[in-house]
Write a structure and sequence with these properties.
Largest sheet: 6 strands, antiparallel
Structural class: mainly beta
Low-confidence stretches: none
Number of helices: 2
Strand content: over 45%
Shape: globular
Radius of gyration: 16 Å
Oligomer: single chain
Order of helices and strands: EHEEEEEEEH
Distance between the termini: 36 Å
């Protein structure tokens, strides 16, 4: 790790609830857009899903499951260009599975979320020759014309 690439910022938090039937990623993208989040993260979550859509490690395709699932964990980063989120869910028998969050996760009874925002930073994705994927780049936030007013 190159410590010269560490970003430091104070933060703010947004707390909200998603209702039954809402699609998780669409709702998160709307919040990120509406509140101008450019360096966000999931600080906390409690909720349930009726549909889970995940991509497991090393697999190119996603997996979907319908039923009753408790969200055990949701972690990751959010920015204006997208998100990188991983989630673990448990089924009615308590078996836990997890992976990369895909579109199509549907709230069952509730999804209570707290998002953190780092207003002094912005997240970007850039190609990493070591991983061969677009990976997180942490940059000082540049203010838009609207934010300068």
């Amino acid at each position: 790790m190159n410590e010269t690439k560490i970003g430091v910022s104070q933060g703010r938090f947004l707390a909200f609830r998603l209702a039954p039937g809402e699609e998780l990623l669409g709702a998160l993208r709307r919040i990120v857009r509406n509140y101008g989040i450019r360096a966000g993260y999931v600080a906390g979550v409690v909720g349930s899903l009726s549909r889970v859509c995940l991509r497991f490690a090393g697999k190119p395709e996603g997996t979907e499951a319908d039923g009753c699932f408790e969200v055990v964990s949701l972690v990751g980063t959010l920015d204006a260009a997208g998100e990188h989120l991983h989630m673990a869910v448990s089924d009615p028998g308590g078996a836990v599975t997890g992976g990369h969050v895909l579109e199509g996760c549907i709230v069952r009874t509730t999804m209570e979320l707290v998002l953190g925002d780092l207003p002094g930073l912005e997240f970007r994705r850039g190609y990493c020759p070591l991983s061969t994927y677009d990976e997180l780049e942490v940059m000082p936030r540049t203010l838009t014309k609207k934010e300068n007013k």
